[in-house]
Specification:
By secondary structure, the protein is α/β, with parallel strands linked by helices. It folds into 2 domains: 3-93 and 167-273, Alpha-Beta Barrel (TIM Barrel), CATH 3.20.20.140; 103-154, Orthogonal Bundle (DNA polymerase, domain 1). It is 40% helix and 13% strand. The chain has a 7-stranded mixed β-sheet. It binds adenosine monophosphate, fe (iii) ion (2 copies) and zinc ion. Residues 63, 75, 189-190 line the site of one fe (iii) ion.
């Protein structure tokens, strides 16, 4: 069984439609794939139909953007939650709107130094998609300012850049509680991805575990080996489940479907724990 529990479509910052992600998953030889768009479940319906057509099982999911009180960015994967749960829905809706004004502010700042307009950014984004820095990066690529998203993220769009603007995001422990309340299974995404920015310390893990954290995404290309050892010990100590995933974004990132996998027993534990919705199997 080849199981990849982290992939994005153009409902957020992936480059393929949800249906195309399912087709790509089948082509990559996956048996199971999770669709985990940032702060949105809008791809679930299209993804479910295409999963059945392509003979792959779909784990409906989401990746919630969070921020600690120290300002450190945390991504929380949610699997099999009820997408209509009011508390969780309210938080992600707030974040989605905040992302819109934040992107506009970043574009205003960038337009002072680069040939970039708001129109350039939104005309290539799918309607209703969760807007992020990757979409601004795409417009900068089209304008010839950078070669690709990766170059944009190591130069103009880093969190230290003078063009960077924050957006509203819930605290990670609050997000864990909301995912649980919605019947979902909360898993800390790429927890030690130090190249992306500052990483959290012991107290954040403690708060998230106390709030009901279920697992850690350990096998992910952005987690350095030293960090993985720390995460394995933490998972052992607290009985957390562990996952491995690609974090596929279509052509938006080099990450390939199936480059990291999750074991069938871990998926079984996720399904046992969840009460919000079911895995889609054709
Ligand atoms: P935002 O949530 O808008 O602040 O943007 C962060 C998003 O950018 C994350 O979802 C990542 O998937 C994406 N991202 C981060 N680093 C890179 C990179 N080097 N290349 C492409 N996308 C990236
Ligand atoms: Fe992303
Ligand atoms: Fe992430
Ligand atoms: Zn992701």
């Amino acid at each position: 069984m080849r199981i990849d529990l982290h992939a994005h479509s153009n409902v957020s910052d992936g480059t393929e439609t949800p249906a195309d992600v399912m087709a790509s998953a089948a082509r990559a030889g996956l048996d199971v794939v999770a669709l985990t768009d940032h702060d949105s479940t809008d791809g679930w319906t299209e993804g479910s139909l295409a999963a059945i057509d392509n003979g792959v099982a779909l784990v409906p999911g989401m990746e919630v953007s969070c921020r600690t009180e120290k300002g450190i960015s945390v991504h929380l994967l949610s699997y099999l939650h009820d997408p209509a749960h009011p508390g969780l829905l309210e938080e992600i809706t707030k974040a989605k709107y905040a992302r819109l004004t934040r992107a506009e502010r970043m574009v205003t700042l960038l337009s002072e130094d680069f040939p970039l307009t708001w129109d350039d950014v939104i005309h290539r984004v799918a309607p209703g998609a969760t807007l992020g820095r990757p979409h601004i990066a795409d417009a900068l690529v089209a304008a010839g300012v950078v070669a690709d998203r990766s170059e944009a993220f190591t130069s103009i769009l880093t969190s230290h850049s003078r063009y960077f603007v924050q957006h509203y995001a819930p605290d990670p422990a609050t997000a864990v509680e909301l995912v649980r309340a919605a019947g979902g299974v909360p898993v800390f995404a790429h927890p030690v991805a130090s190249a992306r920015g500052r990483i959290v310390g012991e107290s954040t893990y403690r708060d998230m575990i106390d709030a009901g954290l279920a697992g850690l995404e350990i096998d992910h290309r952005d987690n350095p080996e030293e960090g993985r050892e720390f995460l394995r010990r933490l998972a052992d100590r607290h009985g957390l489940l562990v996952t491995g995933s690609s974090d596929y974004h279509g052509t938006g990132k080099p990450n390939l479907l199936g480059e990291n996998l999750t074991t069938p027993d871990m998926l079984a534990r996720i399904e046992e724990m969840a009460t919000g919705t079911l895995v889609v199997r054709g």
